[in-house]
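Predict the holo structure. Ligand: uridine-diphosphate-N-acetylglucosamine.
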Amino acid sequence: MNILVTGGAGFIGSHTVVALAEAGFTPIILDDFSNSEAGVIDGLESILGFRPVTYTENCHNPETLRRIFRDEKIQGIIHFAAFKAVGESMQKPLEYYDNNVGALIVLLKTMQECHIPHLIFSSSCTVYGEPDALPVTEKTPVKPAFSVYGNTKQIGEEILHDTVSAGIPLKIIALRYFNPIGAHPSAAIGELPRGVPNNLVPFITQTAAGLRTSLTVFGDDYPTPDGTCIRDYIHVLDLAEAHVAALSHLMKTTASSYYDIFNIGTGQGVSVMELIKSFERVTGVSLNYSIGPRRSGDVTAVYAGVEKSEKVLGWKATRSMDQALVDAWRWQVKG
Ligand code: UD1
């Protein structure tokens, strides 16, 4: 069964290509390589033993989508292609709304026209903002977004909800990702941040490798046991496998219009300091870090309630954070 993976050369996308192929699906990549490297396809080839079909185009053009849907006999879509830098989104709101929301609308209209029913959408735990109670479940209220990026995810979810509520025959799942880390254990694919990484783990591995002089811990005066922020770090391969579970669930669903939302995390909250200590322990590398001021827009703590995804999708994270950190480090050292 042929599945179109938009953004399939990105961090989560490339690992999902592997998970799809391992589950017997045929992934077809659509990526404009605006935030990914051509070498990712070589890495995928070395893992899979075949070179995935790849289209170097963006998702804004319905004519492109129609052609690929037809030529590749696409039966489902996993839509990763989007911009994801929180800070940049505040400088470039129109680019973010155009790429993350505009292209989603084009995709949905073209899916409807071409009778392709199955869609998985990448959402984020950022929709919960600073939650009033932990863990957050899918029933936890969504809070006003802190950033344009966060707003594109909220608007995306609303568009999907409204589309399905109108009875349009599409079956859609939105996955709210927590914090993906790690890499494929082969070190053939992994995270490839451009410039200075925003996210914690690539910053740690680059610092440990000597590419950056020091890691700044953004605040140790939060109301948490050690004063640093708490997140739910999930191995990217576990996250990738959640897409396969979601797609399989959609394909079994008999309703012609369907929309649901799932948290995709481990259910474990881990502080920045705990993660740093784990990294040092599993790699044997000591990290140069110091405590700095809080980063604006950070929430104190968020981690996933995972009951719904376990019950409905039959999926749960199986890899440890230690494993993810070892894999992230192997990828960094190889890079
Ligand atoms: C961030 C985004 C989130 C997005 C996700 C995508 C913000 C506020 N949130 O999540 O919307 O969906 O990335 O991957 O940008 N930290 C440090 N030092 C660093 C980097 C990070 O102490 O150099 C801390 C942060 O304060 C935070 C934790 O590490 O407590 C995780 O940060 P990060 O990896 O950037 O993820 P989020 O902020 O959770």
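The mean pLDDT is 97. DSSP finds eleven helices and 13 strands in the chain.
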